Amino acid sequence: MVHNLVFATNNMHKLREIQEILGSEFHILSLQDLGIETDIPETADTLEGNASQKARFIYTMTGKNCFADDTGLEIEALNGRPGVFSARYAGVGCNFNDNIEKILKELDGIENRRACFRCVFSLIIEGNEHQFVGRVDGKITTVRAGKDGFGYDPVFVPDGYSQSFAQMPPYLKNGISHRGRAAAKMGKWLNSAHAK
Q: How far is the C-alpha of 184 from the C-alpha of 175, rounded, in Å?
């Protein structure tokens, strides 16, 4: 039996990643699939708060089992920035090229380039909320590398690897990424819950 789950996003990269991780037992629907074009609020000051806010908003609107994520890049030398502001770090209307330019400028000449990606999934099943957190540590490069991935992937190299996320094939990135780790935890929980 295939279970439908609504993912509170229209980001096709994320949808593809999650569908690959959760496998064929789950059919992931986007907001677009449901005809939802409303702006979803993201006003919390933590990743956990934003993920919860987005998931509850969609669950209240649709009554369907759903999940939402919030992801942040946290850089040691920038006191954890951009963090919860990762998607709009360079300002309103910016894109990820602008965001990458801003962090590379801010880190110019700084030796400590330690950073981590954190991802929080908030899953709501029959009104009950469950959160799953994934984290990957690494460093910010001085120049972009790679054409795959999205967001900050061209400037993030995870510990134990010499390639940026944007240089890795999807199967490798999904296996070690923050989103992959959080999604794997969520998938494990979903599979055990449905197996009962």
A: 9
pLDDT value of residue 2: 62
Residue tagged active-site, from 70, 98, 153, 159: 70
Q: What is the tens place of the pLDDT at every residue in 13-40? A: 888 888 888 888 889 999 999 999 888 8
pLDDT at 196 over 60: no
C-alpha 83/C-alpha 71 separation (Å) is 8
In CATH terms, 3-195 corresponds, of 3.30.1220.10, 3.40.630.30, 3.90.950.10, 3.20.20.370, to 3.90.950.10
pLDDT of 195: 52
Other residues' Cβ atoms within 10 Å of the Cβ of residue 90:
18
* Whether residue 70 lies in the annotated active site: yes
Hey, how many other C-beta atoms are within 10 angstroms of the C-beta on 174?
Answer: 19
Section 180-190 average pLDDT: 90
Measuring CA to CA, how many Å separate 149 from each of 14, 94, 171?
10, 18, 12
Q: What pLDDT, on the 0 to 100 scale, is given for residue 5?
A: 93
Domain ranges of the chain: 3-195
Backbone angles phi, psi at 3, to 5 degrees: -100, 135
